[in-house]
Structure formats: structure tokens, C-alpha cells
Design a protein that fits this description.
Blueprint (H helix, E strand, L loop, with lengths): L19 H6 L4 H8 L3 H11 L11 H9 L6 E7 L8 H8 L1 H14 L2 E8 L4 H16 L16 E5 L9 H8 L24 E5 H13 L1 H4 L10 E8 L5 E6 L4 H8 L9 E5 L8 E2 L9 H6 L8 E6 L4 H15 L5 H18 L5 H14 L7 H26 L15
The structure holds flavin mononucleotide.
Length: about 425
Amino acid sequence: MVTLTEPRVLQKLDGPPWDIDAYLKVGGYEAWKKCVRELSPEQVVQELKASGLRGRGGAGFPTGVKWDKVLNHRVKEHYFVCNAGEHEPGTFKDRHLLKTAPHQLIEGCLIASHTAQAKASFIYVNHEYEEERENLKRALAQAKERGFVGKNILGSGIDIDLQVFEGHGSYVAGEETAMLESMQGRPAMPRQKPPFYPTDFGLYGKPTLVNNVETLCNIPRILYKGAQWFTQVGTEKCPGTMMFSLSGAVNRPGVYEMPMGITIRQLIETCGGGVPGGRKIKAVFPGGPAFSMITADQLDLAMDFDSLKKAGTGLGSAGVIVVDDATCMVRQTLKFSNFFKGESCGQCPPCRMGTINLANLMTKIEAGEGTQKDLDSLLQLCGFVKGTGYCTLVTGASVLVQSSVKLFRHEFEEHIRLHRCPYPAAPVDTTVH
Ligand SMILES: Cc1cc2nc3c(=O)[nH]c(=O)nc-3n(C[C@H](O)[C@H](O)[C@H](O)COP(=O)(O)O)c2cc1C
């Protein structure tokens, strides 16, 4: 098994994760004390900018820049929300952090809330993460007891009431504007953008700082150890580490914290212990099903936002899914097409109809009932719906199919020619997620 030495974000605790004493022993809440007693919000923003930290929720937006925007917004009523809505297939790193580092997340949230000068602060946790939510509440109660949360924090006069909010159990609810809508009692549907980004128009229409769980877990470590410490690993433009969720055809699936820029091969071989049964890699989704796949000849690509973008794909929230050569790519693609169909919120017609029609055509081809015309229609539909909609769901659904046909067209054509799936039968997952 691989071990990452310092600088790393995730701390080894001598005790259960919710035990505040175990966290205090590794320097826990020191950064928060520093913010309460010494650092101004502006100094915190400067340190974050110097660290080069980029959001780990999928888009890789510079965190210091986002915090600056909210702090210095002309409208002075601000809110803060931690996004723990995680619901993408193959991504489970936030769940791991909620489970293993609840105090570190709480500390990150306190720093974010104070820096953004938030009037109210929330941790929005996926409704299905029941155990994690309970652990988080337990840790929060301890932090309150020790005076780190609540009224007059550490005698400073600062008040922060951090609340755990039970979120919606859907993929779209993780999209920040849909999340904020659902927090206000409305359906979890993304807002049309621009102009309404949360930094300008968030909760209750006020500037709102939204950050991902992993982004926030980085904050206390950066402020405690310094920006220079943080930039010792990773790449120049993507410093630090990333929590990779590794799943699919690997011997040791799991969450691995590794430097940004590690190659896909290193991740699969060193962390994942290679592919089971001596089989070969056919494809890898480096950033979950919404980004293009890569093939076995691209395993030396670096896993960071910029390198993967340059290669025509993306890191997303680093849900790495490995596919071996025993897998039917049409069936694999259909599985994710069904996911997108089930998760479309239905608000935007191109997404609602597009995801249904993509999944229908994929089902037909996988069942051996497809024609060459269906394959053409599939690609034409991808072209029509890509880039439409208030969020990127339908774009992800199109990119998935386009990438699969581009890289594995021969498999689609074989299904059409043989009038059946050439791979051994397996139940097709048509579950609506
Ligand atoms: C369909 C969809 C689902 C998303 N789900 C999540 C999620 O579960 N967690 C998350 O942090 N970001 C998610 N995002 C990204 C958020 O909208 C947002 O960019 C992120 O929370 C910002 O945090 P960061 O700057 O710390 O990365 C999703 C985006 C889309 C389009």
C-alpha cells in the first residue's frame, strides 16, 4: 500500500474521528485560533491566494479568488455553505473525509464562514450519508462544548452558528445553485447563469461562499503550515494533493490522497494494485462519467486539472473509474447513460428529452436491435444537446457517448452487425438512480 508523507492534508488520528482531543493533538483548531486572534480575513485570503489552492468540487476554481469576491462584495449580507452533496458514480472522497476528518472539515468551515463574514453557515450533506451526518453532528457538539463554535468564540466576540443541513439525495442537488434552491424549500434545480453565480446571488439572493468538502479540509492545514508548505507537492498551477476515488477494475479500490500530477498509471498500479486477474486496461474515466475516457496508451497522463483538460478530458472531482478488457463498452456506457437519464431534473427540455433519447438509443444498440442510422442519430443528438441546459448534466451525458463512440466505434458496429451484444450476458443496470 502507498503512503504519502508530508505535506498531506489528511491527518492520522490517535482516536475515533469525532474525538476532538485526538484532533487537537495533531494541531487541530490551531489555524482557527490564529484566525480568531491574529489574522484578518484579508490576510487569510492572501495566504490562500499564495497557496494556489483550487476547488476540489469539480471546476478547479481558485479558492482565494472566490473568497475575495465574497468578502469584498458591495452587498454586505453574506452566507456560507459547504457542499457535501456528493452523488456522482465513482466519487466517494467527500464521504471518506466526512467519516474520517469531521473536525478538520468543521475547522475549514469556521475559517471560511468567518473570512466571508457570513451571517449564517451550513454544511449541506447528501441525504443518503446518514452515518456521516451523525458523526459530523457529534463532532460539532464537541467543538461547541470547547468554545470553537457558537457565541463569543474563544472570548473574541465572534459568533458562528454552523448547522448541518440534510440535503437532497440527487446528483443535480450537488450543483451549487440547485443546492441553494433546495435549501430554500424549492425543487433542487439549477438556476440559469449568468448572472446568478452564488458569489453574487446565492442563498436568499445574497453573496454566498460555496466550497467543496475537500477544498475546506485543505484550509486549516494551509493556514497552520503556511502556503509554502502546501506548494511543495503537486504541479505549479495545481499545487497540493488530491483525494482520488479509485474504483472499477482494480485490486484495491479506495480513496487515495496523492500529489496533483501523479500519473494515471501510478495511481492504478501503486495505489490500486493493478487490474485483477491479469486483465488489461481498456479505458479509464479520469474524472467520472461526465468527462471523456482515455485509453491504455494514455496512462502516463498527469492527473491535474490542466493536463487532463489539455488532453481533451477533465479531472472533475477525481472519481477515477478503471474499465478492463472483459467489459463491453456499449454496456458500460449504457449504464452511465441511464444514470444521467435518471438524474436529469427535467427543468431544461434538451436535457430532459436528450438524456432519455440517448439512453433509449444506447439500450437499443446494446440489445442488438440498433441500426447504423441509430448510431448516426446518437451522435447527432449529442451534438444538438451538448452545451445546453442550466447546468452541465446533459453536456456530461453527451461527452460520455461521444467519447465512447470515438474510442470504441468498432464495438458499437459489432453490436449492430451481429444483432446482439458480443460479450457474455450480464444484467443491464437500468435502475433510475
Ligand atoms: C451536476 C453537478 C453536480 C455537482 N455536484 C457537486 C457535489 O456533489 N459536490 C461539490 O462540491 N460540487 C459539486 N458540483 C460543483 C459545484 O457546483 C461547485 O462548483 C462546487 O461545490 C464549488 O466548490 P469548490 O470551489 O470548492 O470546488 C456539481 C456540479 C454539477 C454541474
